[in-house]
Write a structure and sequence with these properties.
It comes from Agromyces salentinus. A hairpin with a 4-residue loop joins strand 10 and strand 11. The protein has two helices and 23 strands. By secondary structure, it is mainly β.
């Protein structure tokens, strides 16, 4: 398990524990208060505001005093795509003075998983700019774009097409077996013997999956003798020293899973192919 996955799971557990005892976890004295699930309000008296514990990389972890920040619609990922767009940001100046605002995020959290916003071509920004990034901690600070959203008048709100989309190779999502379940079953077909793979998850963001398949769980040695294993929408790598065991992952359109996309079913993922008959002499 990667350090980023361990960190995300620790944060999620910490938040759940805090909720069970009836109070929000706090790491610093703050005057921040919830506006709704994705909006935070920082009182002017706060020197620096830390909203409740972030669960995603688009939840604010700190912001300008006097700023109200929200993501108005939950971002989504298209099927089998780790890229995402967060283009519904909204910022409001609740002070009586002009505000050159900033907001910070933790990009080590899902669904960005440590994707560096400063890599050329990694992000497309709309009406915001990167003002700082600390690769060691994953803290990314943004502000408003010059001559557009950089300075908010007293009481002013800016929103609409405001945020970012990941581009290029996209976030490098993890493979954490604790976040998904895999079931392998035998398919009874008329002319061939195959295995079907079913993958399901309750995790809301794109993750990779993998499994290890022992062909002897579904076939006898006699059935396997002299056959070749073929694959469809999956890649199967033989495990050294174990002639009937394979490490299996998805390919292209099947390599990722996420709860909003539904379960992943791969028919004929692995099939037994009999050797061709010998050529006549």
């Amino acid at each position: 398990m990667s350090a980023r996955v361990r960190r995300w799971r620790a944060l999620a557990a910490f938040a759940a524990a805090a909720a069970m005892v009836g109070g929000a976890a706090s790491i610093s004295t703050t005057t921040a208060a919830w506006v709704d699930q994705t909006a935070f309000h920082a009182e002017v008296s706060a020197l620096e505001t830390f909203p409740p514990l972030a669960e995603t990389s688009h939840d604010a972890i700190a912001m300008s005093p006097g700023l109200e920040f929200a993501v108005l619609e939950q971002p989504t990922q298209p099927p089998n795509d780790a890229d995402l767009c967060v283009l519904t940001m909204s910022v409001t100046n609740t002070t009586a003075e002009p505000l050159e605002w900033w907001v910070e995020f933790d990009v080590d959290l899902p669904p960005l998983w440590g994707y560096d916003p400063t890599i050329p071509g990694a992000f497309g920004l709309s009406r915001i700019v990167t003002t700082a990034f600390d690769a060691a901690t994953g803290v990314w600070r943004i502000g408003g774009a010059a001559n557009d959203t950089a300075v908010l008048a007293p009481g002013e709100t800016k929103s609409g097409g405001m945020g970012y989309c990941t581009t290029g190779s996209g976030p490098q999502v993890p493979d954490d077996p604790s976040l998904y379940e895999v079931e392998v079953s035998k398919m009874d077909l008329e002319f061939e013997s195959c295995l079907e793979i079913h993958v399901e998850t309750t995790f809301p963001w794109a993750i990779r999956w993998s499994t290890q398949v022992d062909m002897l769980d579904s076939f006898t040695e006699a059935e396997l003798a002299g056959t070749e294993v073929t694959t469809s929408q999956a890649a199967a790598t033989p495990v050294s020293g174990q002639p009937y065991v394979y490490d299996v992952v998805g390919q292209e359109a099947t390599e990722l899973v996420a709860a909003p996309w539904g379960d992943r079913d791969i028919d004929r993922a692995m099939c037994l192919e009999a050797p061709p008959p010998p050529l006549p002499e």
